[in-house]
Design brief:
Low-confidence stretches: 3-42, 69-74, 261-271
Structural class: alpha/beta
Distance between the termini: 77 Å
Oligomer: single chain
Strand content: 5-15%
Number of domains: 4
Number of helices: 23
Shape: globular
């Protein structure tokens, strides 16, 4: 028997589903077998038949083996699957200690360590010292949950409540406690000013870690949508009509109640209407007061006071009654009266103007929310706040240079004492046009001084009045310096000016991109100027915490 035939015979003997077969050369005594097979000798035809039979049985075994490997006839192997055990009925699916639930470098542990270092006396001041009443959740735990939620982009109290059940990291921060959404919302509202004060404490943590470089800071603002609809805006006329309609409905309901003989307490809907009428009257009064403050008569009265104090008339063009300067805000929002209709690149949005000051390393050192659409009035206030916050944080290095875009351009901001301001006098595409107009003005004034043209022709060419041309000529003869616009453009065009101003976008713009794009926070959930300011400070504080965590 050949070697290959012997192997095939062994394979047949090892099969589980067929009985072992005898070898080819075995002696059989069967009734219809030929004499050659009985004697162990076979003819050439018998050899070919045996070879075909053996080849068929060998291919059958190989096909059976392949089908078993790829899922067919699995019961033929006698080998079990090697899976990791997954028994949901076991007693402990998590380690007994929450300290083993998360890796050591997780953000949750970093937040807990930072909160443990904060001064929480402002939070404890809102609780009773005598221990009476129901037990409250620990303010340190609630604050840690709130900060971690804002770090991960969760601001809805209901979503935070859900994460406290489903998310392991939230359960670690909350020590496996599960305050409901109403408790979380009340904690955030009751400790509004204390939460706003956390910004300075987090900044102090960053200062102690040596993460701040305050020599150069950048100021900018971004528009955030308020928790209010544009459709809730009403003009003064509409407010007055709604007040009258509410008063008429209240009178009618009271008359109906008097007819029915009910002389008791008014119904809840009547009390709600009275409160609504008081709120509408307040909004109407604010619109009227703002209109009176910006009116033409008020402007002329202020000018008269200044002229009486100085004894000299104010130079320049006198205000006109129909000027846009005297137009006040024409409408107020019923849902969030402190919010304003602000213009953005994508259109108008009902929201707030969120201001921020950042260092070169994109750490926010000052934050504030305002409802003023323009950025320029906030410049001096934000620079002062940045200096104070850095001083309280223990940072000894001073703020020396401040960069800002064209939205902060004004004479007062450029000449702000204590810092060197680098403020663009216009947009980048407008600077060339400004330079060309200033050069053209200089050439026309040179021709007037040379006697080539008179002041009347010069006023037509410059597009200004004849008195303005005479004023420019007097300034040139007196040796007055160039206009502030040209002075700043010349300053920004130097090597030092270009290297300084180009740091503006790299310092402050990534802060807004991180908050609005990466963390998907484009609106404020709290209503009212003070509440919105508190939430914006918390957002900036968590921004600093995330940067410190990544650099740790």
């Amino acid at each position: 028997m050949g070697r290959s035939q012997h192997r095939l015979a062994e394979h047949r003997a090892d099969r589980l589903d067929t009985p072992p077969q005898p070898a080819v050369g075995a002696v059989f005594v069967l009734g219809d077998e030929p004499h050659e097979r009985v004697c162990g000798r076979s003819s050439s035809a018998a050899k070919k038949a045996d070879a075909a039979r053996l080849s068929h049985e060998s291919c059958w075994w190989l096909r059976r083996f392949v089908r078993g490997c790829w899922g067919g006839d699995r019961e033929d192997h006698g080998v079990g699957y090697n899976f990791v055990s997954a028994d949901r009925d076991q007693l402990m699916l998590l380690p007994p200690s929450v300290a083993d639930w998360l890796p050591e470098d997780h953000l949750a542990w970093f937040v807990l360590d930072v909160v443990a270092e904060l001064d929480l006396s402002a939070f404890h001041a809102g609780y009773r010292l005598d221990g009476r009443g129901g037990a409250a959740y620990d303010p340190q735990m609630m604050l840690a949950v709130l900060i971690y939620a804002y770090c991960t982009g969760e601001r809805s109290s209901r979503r935070i409540e859900k994460r406290l059940v489903e998310d392991v990291a939230f359960r670690v921060v909350a020590v496996n406690q599960q305050p409901d959404h109403a408790t979380i919302a009340r904690f955030r509202a009751n400790h509004e000013s204390a939460i706003a004060g956390l910004f300075a404490q987090v900044l102090a943590v960053c200062a102690r870690a040596g993460l701040l470089r305050p020599a150069l800071i950048a100021v900018d603002g971004t528009k955030l949508a308020a928790n209010a609809s544009r459709d809730a805006n009403r003009t003064a006329t509409q407010l007055a009509e709604q007040i009258l309609a509410e008063a008429a409905a209240t009178d009618a309901a009271e008359d109906a109640a008097a007819v029915d003989g009910d002389q008791g307490e008014p119904a809840p809907e009547l009390r709600d209407r009275n409160g609504r009428r008081a709120r509408l009257r307040k909004l109407l009064g604010e619109l009227e007061a703002e209109a009176a403050q910006k009116s033409y008569e008020s402007h002329m009265a202020k000018r008269a006071v200044i002229e009486a104090a100085t004894g000299k008339p104010i130079r320049g063009r006198r205000p006109a009654p129909g000027s846009s300067t005297h137009k006040s805000r024409g409408q107020a929002n019923l849902t969030d009266p402190d919010s304003r209709l602000l213009k953005t690149k994508g259109g108008y949005v009902q929201g707030y103007n969120a201001q921020a000051v950042a260092t070169e390393d994109q750490f926010v050192v000052a934050a504030e929310v305002t409802n003023c659409a323009h950025d320029a009035p906030a410049y001096a206030r934000m620079v002062k706040a940045a200096k104070q916050n850095l001083r309280r944080a223990g940072e000894r290095r001073r703020v020396r240079r401040v960069v800002a875009d064209a939205g902060y351009w004004s004479i007062e901001n450029v000449n702000l004492a204590g810092v060197e301001s680098f403020i663009a006098p216009g947009r980048a595409r407008e600077l060339t046009q400004i330079a060309e107009s200033e050069q053209q003005r200089g050439e026309i004034l040179d021709r007037v001084e040379a006697g080539e043209i008179d002041t009347l022709v010069a006023s037509h060419q410059l597009g200004v009045t004849r008195a303005r041309v005479n004023q420019l000529l007097r300034r040139r003869r007196a040796g007055d310096p160039d206009p502030l616009t040209m002075t700043m453009m010349t300053k920004l065009n130097t090597t030092r000016g270009r290297s300084t101003y180009k740091k503006r976008a790299a310092s402050i713009e990534p802060v807004f991109a991180q908050i609005k794009h990466n963390r998907h926070i484009r609106s404020l959930s709290r209503r009212g100027l003070a509440a919105a300011d508190s939430e914006w400070k918390l957002l900036c504080a968590t921004h600093n915490l995330l940067k410190a965590y990544r650099l740790a």
